C-alpha cells in the first residue's frame, strides 16, 4: 500500500550491545530506525549502525528528555518508541501492521501489553503484567510530556486504542542489575518528589512497601508466577521502601 503511513522506530540506549540487535531485528517492518545513544562504550552504536539504524549521540539528562529528543529526530510523524531491552513480538507486529494498513484511522495513539522476562520465564500476573504502555503514536498529537524524567509516560490528545500482542521486556541481566536499576530509579524518584514538594512520613516506609507487595502478589495474583512472582514482588517492595527512605533523608538533611 504505497500511501500507507510510515513509522519511525525510536530507541534510546546505553551499553546495550548484547540486546539492541534483537530489538532492531523485531522492528524490521518499520520505515526507519533511530537510535539515540548516551555514551556507550561497548559497541552499541556500531551494532545498531550495522543493522541499518540511524545512530545519534546525546548526553543523558533524563529518560523523558532522551525519548522526546529521539521522537523529534524521526523523519515520520508516526513513531514507535522502544527501549533497547524490548522486542516487538510477531503478534504485536501483526496488530501494528493491520492498523497501519488501515491508515491508523480513528486513533492518535495505541497501547499494548508489556511482558517482562524474569530469570528464565515471562511474568504473567502481578504488577508486571499486562503493564499496558502507550508507545505507538502520532507525534503531532502528543509525545513524552511532563517534567518528570523517571517513570515517564507518553500521552496524546485524541483516541487511544489497545492492540493485541505483547511487547517483550528483557529487563534484567541479573539480580545485581535489577538492584542497581532500582537504586538509580529510587534516587531519581526521591529527588523528583522532593522538588515537587512531596514529603515522606514514617508510615510511608512501612505501609507503601506493604501495599505494593500486597497489590502485586495477592490482589493481582502474582503468586501464580511461582517463586519468580514472589521475588519480583519483594524487589518491588524494597524499591518503594528505598524511594521513601531517600525522600525522608532529603527532607531531614542539615
Note down, in words, how this protein is organized:
By secondary structure, the chain is an alpha/beta fold. The mean pLDDT is 96. The protein has helices spanning 20-25, 44-50, 63-73, 90-101, 175-195, 202-219, 226-252; strands at residues 7-13, 32-37, 54-57, 78-83, 86-88, 109-118, 121-122, 133-138, 142-144, 154-156, 160-169. Strand 1 (7-13), helix 1 (20-25) and strand 2 form a beta-alpha-beta unit. Strands 1, 2, 3, 4, 5, 6, 7, 8 and 11 form a nine-stranded mixed β-sheet that branches. A two-stranded antiparallel ribbon has the order 9-10. The protein has two domains: 7-169, Alpha-Beta Complex (Spore Coat Polysaccharide Biosynthesis Protein SpsA, Chain A), CATH 3.90.550; 175-252, no CATH class. Helix 5 (175-195) runs parallel beside helix 7.
Concise summary:
The protein is of the alpha/beta class and 254 residues long. The protein is built from seven helices and eleven strands.
Return the CATH architecture of the largest domain: Alpha-Beta Complex
CATH class of the largest domain: Alpha Beta
Report mean pLDDT, rounded to a whole number. 96
Number of strands: 11
Oligomer type: single chain
> Low-confidence runs (pLDDT<50, min 5 residues)?
none
List the helices and strands in order. EHEHEHEEHEEEEEEHHH
- CATH homology-level superfamily of the largest domain: Spore Coat Polysaccharide Biosynthesis Protein SpsA, Chain A
> What general outline do the C-alpha atoms trace?
globular
Supply the number of helical segments: 7
Q: In percent, how helical is the residue content?
A: 40-55%
The CATH topology name of the largest domain reads Spore Coat Polysaccharide Biosynthesis Protein SpsA, Chain A
* Domains, number: 2
Distance between the termini: 64 Å
Radius of gyration: 19 Å
Amino acid at each position: 500500500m504505497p500511501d500507507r503511513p510510515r513509522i519511525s522506530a525510536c530507541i534510546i540506549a546505553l551499553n546495550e550491545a548484547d540486546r539492541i540487535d534483537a530489538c532492531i531485528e523485531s522492528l524490521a517492518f518499520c520505515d526507519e530506525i533511530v537510535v539515540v545513544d548516551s555514551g556507550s562504550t561497548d559497541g552499541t552504536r556500531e551494532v545498531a549502525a550495522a543493522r541499518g539504524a540511524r545512530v545519534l549521540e546525546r548526553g543523558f539528562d533524563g529518560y523523558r528528555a532522551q525519548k522526546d529528543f529521539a521522537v523529534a529526530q524521526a523523519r515520520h510523524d508516526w513513531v514507535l518508541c522502544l527501549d533497547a531491552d524490548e522486542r516487538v513480538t510477531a503478534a504485536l507486529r501483526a496488530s501494528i501492521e493491520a492498523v497501519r494498513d488501515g491508515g491508523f484511522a480513528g486513533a492518535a495513539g495505541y497501547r499494548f501489553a508489556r511482558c517482562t522476562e524474569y530469570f528464565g520465564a515471562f511474568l504473567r500476573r502481578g504488577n508486571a503484567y499486562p503493564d499496558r504502555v502507550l508507545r505507538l503514536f502520532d507525534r503531532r498529537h502528543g509525545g513524552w510530556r511532563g517534567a518528570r524524567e523517571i517513570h515517564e509516560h507518553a500521552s496524546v490528545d485524541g483516541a487511544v486504542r489497545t492492540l493485541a500482542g505483547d511487547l517483550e521486556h528483557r529487563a534484567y541481566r541479573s539480580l545485581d542489575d535489577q538492584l542497581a536499576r532500582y537504586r538509580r530509579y529510587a534516587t531519581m524518584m526521591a529527588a523528583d518528589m522532593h522538588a515537587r514538594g512531596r514529603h515522606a512520613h514514617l508510615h510511608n516506609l512501612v505501609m507503601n512497601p506493604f501495599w505494593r507487595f500486597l497489590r502485586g502478589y495477592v490482589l493481582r495474583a502474582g503468586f501464580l508466577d511461582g517463586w519468580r512472582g514472589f521475588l519480583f514482588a519483594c524487589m518491588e517492595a524494597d524499591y518503594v521502601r528505598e524511594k521513601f527512605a531517600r525522600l525522608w533523608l532529603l527532607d531531614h538533611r542539615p
